[in-house]
Structure formats: C-alpha cells, structure tokens
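Input (structure):
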C-alpha cells in the first residue's frame, strides 16, 4: 500500500505533464431561472438577476447572472452516482484530465476578472488549463498546489470571465 507522500509525488509527476494542455467543454445554455435560483440561494436579490425589464432599465441586454454564477460550480454535469465520487466527495472531471487518484482536494481561492455580462439564453463554453503544479512539504506531509486557469466564453468566442483558481491536493 502506498503512503500518502508516495501518492502525492506520483500525482505531482502526472499533473506536471498536464501543464499547458487545454480542455474545452460546452457547459450549455444558461437561463434566467438558473440566475434567479442562484440569486435566491446566495441572498442577493438584485433585480437585474431576477427580471428582464429591470435588467434592461439598468442598461443590460437581458437578465444577467450574478457575478459568481459561472465560477461557483465545480462541474456542470448532472452529477455522478455517489459510488463514483472521489474520496473527498468531488467528481472526477472537475480538473480536466489531471490525475489525482487517491488524493483529496480543497479549494484555496479564486482570482476573477469579469469581461462581459452572462445573460439569459447565452451558450457558455469553459476552457480549463493547468498553469502550474507545485510540490510542497510540511510537518503533516506532502501536498500539491494546483494553479488552474478557467476561461468562460460565449458561442461567439467572446470572453466572459477569467478565473485563476488554486487547489490543494493531499
């Protein structure tokens, strides 16, 4: 049986091989109802997220998504069955093809740039790439810092959001 440090080091080598590779995924068409549900869930009931007329009166083309709508979800899939989740409860596709078998993930922050409104009826694509992977060692053992870049586009290739995201894997 491998030790935790051995699993981290094996994943480090494999994750380093993923640096620079881009994976593009169609997330689907976003809707006003999804914006409304998200706005209610986060407790931000700004009218531009809830009502097309209010959004247009505020200068938007259509009802807009709350700012964190696109980047708050780990995956846009309907979800895998529980028995196919990773040990930490995450699915297996959130990090593209970065192999982290046997490790647990924890979010370590996002840096966001907003470029254009995400509006009702918009087709959204996400491009994921690994910017860097660092192997760290501490008193409790080895861990990886994964630095990802997620870029969200509409169907016309217009950049919507840039998300630089860090995860800890151990």
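Output (sequence):
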């Amino acid at each position: 049986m491998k030790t935790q440090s051995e699993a981290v080091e094996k994943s480090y080598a494999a994750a380093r091989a993923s640096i620079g590779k881009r994976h593009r995924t169609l997330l689907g068409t976003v809707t006003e109802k999804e914006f409304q549900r998200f706005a209610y869930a986060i407790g931000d009931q700004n009218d531009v997220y809830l009502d097309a007329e209010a959004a247009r009166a505020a200068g938007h083309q259509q009802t807009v998504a709350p700012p964190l709508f696109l980047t708050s979800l780990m995956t846009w899939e309907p979800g895998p069955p529980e028995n196919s989740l990773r040990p930490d409860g995450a699915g297996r596709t959130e990090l593209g093809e970065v192999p982290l078998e046997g490790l647990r993930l924890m979010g370590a922050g996002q840096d966001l740039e907003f470029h254009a409104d995400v509006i009702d009826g918009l087709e959204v694509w996400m491009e994921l790439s690994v910017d860097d992977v660092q192997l760290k060692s501490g008193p409790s053992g080895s861990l990886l810092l994964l630095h990802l870049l997620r870029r969200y586009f509409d169907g016309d290739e217009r950049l919507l959001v840039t998300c630089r995201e860090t995860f800890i894997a151990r």
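Notes: Residues 31-68 form one domain. Strands lie at 22-29, 105-114, 123-138, 141-154, 159-169.
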